[in-house]
Amino acid sequence: MTLWDGLETNTDDSTSNRILIIGATNRVQDLDAAILRRMPTRYYIQLPNINQRIKIFELILKDEQLHKDVNLKKLAQETIDYTGSDINEICRQAAMQRIVELCRENKNKDNMVTSKLRSITQADFLEALRKIRENHEQYQTFDELMLG
């Protein structure tokens, strides 16, 4: 970041002295004053609506084996005020639940049987959502921080 202050361009060629720096974050509360000074313009991108959240779940989970009890619409309804990144983390956590279970079951065995990896269930998603929600509620919204 200290190099930003010393950026130089070729003043002889007006077409080569255009520098555009774009940054994006879901955690604006973690940005320090130096970054905010150097990037004074902010654009708020709305959080995904329910249909967009369903599509995000579908995209992330397209190659995963889901149990028949998984209800993506219900999960999308449970994830109001969540970003695509948050939803990705929920999916990751849910997928890891079954791996953790498999490791516990095979803890004392010499050869772990990975073919027994079960499909991801609604319960896995709800547990992942509970874990993510605990972290999610600790942070203020963008509106409170930047526009409030």
Entry keywords:
about 150 residues, mainly alpha, Helicase, Ruva Protein, domain 3, 7 helices, single chain
Q: Can you offer a commentary on this structure?
A:
The chain is mostly helical. It folds into two domains: 2-38, no CATH class; 50-139, Helicase, Ruva Protein, domain 3, CATH 1.10.8.60. Helix content is 49%, strand content 0%. The protein is built from seven helices and no strands. It has helices at 2-5, 33-38, 50-61, 72-78, 84-105, 122-136, 142-147. α3 (50-61) crosses α5 (84-105). The radius of gyration is 22 Å and the shape is elongated.
Task: Describe the protein's topology.
Elements: H1 2-5, H2 33-38, H3 50-61, H4 72-78, H5 84-105, H6 122-136, H7 142-147
Helix pairs in contact: 3-4, 3-5, 5-6
